[in-house]
Amino acid sequence: MYYSVLLSALYMYKTSKIVFSPRVRKSPYFDSTMKYGADAFSVYNHMYMPISFKGTLEDYNNLVNGVQLWDVACERQVEIKGPDAESLSQFLTPRDIKKCSKGQAMYAPFLDFRGGFINDPVMLKIDEDHYWFSLADGDSLLWAQGIAAGYNYDVEITEPDVSPLQVQGPNSTKLMSEVFGDWVNELGFYKFRELTYEGIPMVIARMGYSRERCYEIFLRDHSKGDELWEMLWQAGQDLNISAGTPNIILRLEAGILSYLADMDRTNNPYEVGLDWTVDLDQRDDFIGKEALREIHLRGPAKKLIGAEIQGKPITVFNDEHWPVLIDNKKVGSMHALVYSPRLNKNIGYIIVDVAHARSGSEIIISSPEQELTATVVDLPWFERA
């Protein structure tokens, strides 16, 4: 297989070539990302997703010192409407969605009947009988449609014409308020507003995939993507605006998880620090409730926790899970690893047997090139801004 290496200061990526074709969807911001320098893509929810502009380190530095636009249109929506929309939405997640008001969002994982993760979307309550679930990677539209059909819910489930664009960084509020008005300054965390601006229909939410100040614009007209991007880009010229992508350094610093990278169907919320999403006391049933009740009573067998890795800055991202060893015995796996410039240390996520998930424990991470000495630490390194 042909491999190319992209190098930006410390970071190298092992990638294969990607060829654009009609088989994979383009986001409404695709042309804008190409115009402003996207140099690497992945495929996420059957859509091209830019993963690098100037390289991970420079993209990181640009973000923490200015404002960035992220094309995350690949976060496709599952839209649930109809008389049973609330009942089905509740059945799909262990969160108690009755606590979520119209105009509010809620992190609401989808679980299978054993309590394993199907997806970890954010739910937006558009109306009393109208919900969006903003997805991580995975065909959860089919999951929701299958559950609805199997349990005879009276709902309509579709993928709407909705494409998120994130505005990230310390200057994000300045940019958003300059374009959309001062009301943005008062928008609460995980709250959103529906509006039409300059003929562009959208939902603006105060949330995003980093610890930085951030917003998410849910564009409701695919044809307006480049127009929206350019409007924000021009308004941000005095705010150190740049194009970027979800950044692994920022993600790990903040203790944010990535579905399929950090957890999947073999993991449950109790293992990865998401037990707060499970409401076993609510009256309503949900998928996986009995399995999670058993796990809650006996305790999880594994736990996701942080690790600080000794040595020089890591220069290659892991593209598979590396074994975690204690006394030459495998006790878990390393799921993500990166060098943090702000911390001046290598940091990562590991999932290990619960007996070894103790802050201060010494472990060995077995990479393909060498064994790395590390110390177990609690998450996160930084709180959300």
Automatic annotation (TrEMBL):
SUPFAM superfamilies: Aminomethyltransferase beta-barrel domain, Folate-binding domain. InterPro entries: GcvT/YgfZ/DmdA, GcvT/YgfZ_C, GcvT_C, GCVT_N, TrmE/GcvT-like. Coiled coil: none annotated. Residues 302-382 form the Aminomethyltransferase C-terminal domain. Signal peptide: none annotated. Residues 31-281 form the GCVT N-terminal domain. Pfam families: GCV_T, GCV_T_C. PANTHER family: AMINOMETHYLTRANSFERASE, AMINOMETHYLTRANSFERASE, MITOCHONDRIAL. This is Aminomethyltransferase folate-binding domain-containing protein. It comes from marine metagenome. The lineage of its organism: unclassified sequences, metagenomes, ecological metagenomes.
